[in-house]
Write a structure and sequence with these properties.
13% strand, 10 helices, HisK_dim/P_dom, HATPase_C_sf, five-stranded mixed sheet, Heat Shock Protein 90, alpha+beta, elongated, phosphorelay sensor kinase activity, phosphoprotein, two-stranded antiparallel sheet
Length: 355
């Protein structure tokens, strides 16, 4: 490329303008992998069958460039701007040269744009992947490091509730502390499950012989004690024993019943555990506020809540996502229906023997 240095200088000047305010990058940093990216583009123009270059770890120059820009504090918008400026610089040089209007000049421009788009896609994909990994590591560290101080708070709360020296106010304070610690533990567990599911490994399950009737009765009784004003009706039909992860199934009941109480506006919550052909069916139904039709397709997406719940700070929008991941890990299905006439119903189907 006869104009390599001119293009690289333009890349350097632009990168200097948009570099993070706290950085003062040298020429090597500003031009990071720009030459290698341009050389690949030139090779692709000269030979469509050109074999892409990769380092020892299998990374392309565009991917390495994204990694170094992320470390330097560049945003994804700044990364995109670099490629946009590079494209403009090259097209400007091309516009100044004498043209013959032949078909291969148009083809060269098309292939040039395709090569730049390919490098851009690689950079953005790598940048986004790195950001997601960093977020997951951060969430994992938070979840892990919060467990120890949270355990201390729970022990202190238990002592206040059970101590012979505590008066009614201290017992009440201990009870509130213990309930808050339990809620914090649930949030931490959801965060860690969220990180695990995003790693691509899914929610881990450990199957043993369990009786869903026992699990349902235990969870329902806990909700009756902690929500004395709630009316929870339990329905049990048939033999609902099978090989499932009992603790994870408990999470399904907890999340679905908790949502039904929270959004049921004081209506009766019906929890059904039914034996059907080769599967167990868990159904949680409530009246009250319905889930809008526009929200229902996204109700199981992470960090998503309906607009009427957006101001609710009691949850992070992970509960139903975790429920779906647990159901999928058991090779089951989960569905929701919500109408003014019928109320809201979550239906979980779990195969008995799926491995």
């Amino acid at each position: 490329m006869n104009n390599m240095e001119h293009i690289l200088q333009g890349w350097e000047d632009f990168a200097r303008k948009i570099q993070p305010p706290h950085r003062s990058m040298d020429v090597h940093e500003l031009r990071d992998h720009a030459r290698e990216i341009l050389e690949e583009v030139a090779m692709e123009l000269a030979n469509p069958d050109f074999a892409r270059s990769r380092d020892a770890s299998g990374n392309t120059p565009a991917e390495i460039h994204a990694d170094t820009r992320a470390v330097s504090g560049f945003s994804v918008d700044q990364l995109l701007a670099e490629y946009r400026a590079l494209r403009v610089s090259v097209l400007d040089l091309w516009s100044r040269r004498e043209k013959t209007a032949t078909w291969f000049e148009v083809e060269d421009m098309t292939r040039f744009n395709e090569a730049i788009d390919r490098a851009l896609a690689e950079s953005v994909s790598r940048y986004s992947e790195g950001q997601h990994q960093a977020q997951d590591v951060f969430l994992g560290i938070i979840g892990h490091d919060l467990r120890t101080p949270l355990s201390a708070i729970s022990l202190g709360a238990t002592y206040l509730m059970r101590s012979e020296n505590s008066d009614s106010k201290l017992i009440q304070l201990g009870s509130r502390m213990f309930n808050s610690a339990e809620r914090m533990q649930e949030i931490i567990d959801n965060l860690l499950d969220f990180v695990r599911s995003r790693s691509g490994l899914g929610i881990p399950v450990h199957r043993t012989e369990v009786d869903l009737a026992v699990i349902a009765e235990q969870i329902i009784e806990e909700f009756r004690v902690s929500n004395p004003g709630a009316v929870i009706h339990a329905v049990l039909e048939g033999d609902v024993r099978g090989r499932w992860d009992g603790a994870r199934i408990g999470q399904i009941y907890q999340n679905l019943i908790g949502n039904a109480i929270q959004y049921g506006d004081g209506t009766t919550v019906t929890v059904s555990t039914l034996a059907r052909d080769g599967e167990a069916v868990l159904i949680v139904h409530n009246g009250g506020t319905i889930i809008p039709q526009a929200v229902q397709p996204h109700i199981f997406d992470p960090l998503r809540r309906g607009p009427e719940h957006a101001g609710n700070r009691k949850n992070m929008g992970l509960g139903l996502y975790i429920v779906r991941e647990i159901v999928i890990a058991h090779h089951g299905t989960i569905d929701v229906t919500s109408t003014e006439e019928e109320g809201t119903t979550f239906t979980v189907r779990l195969p008995r023997q799926a491995e």
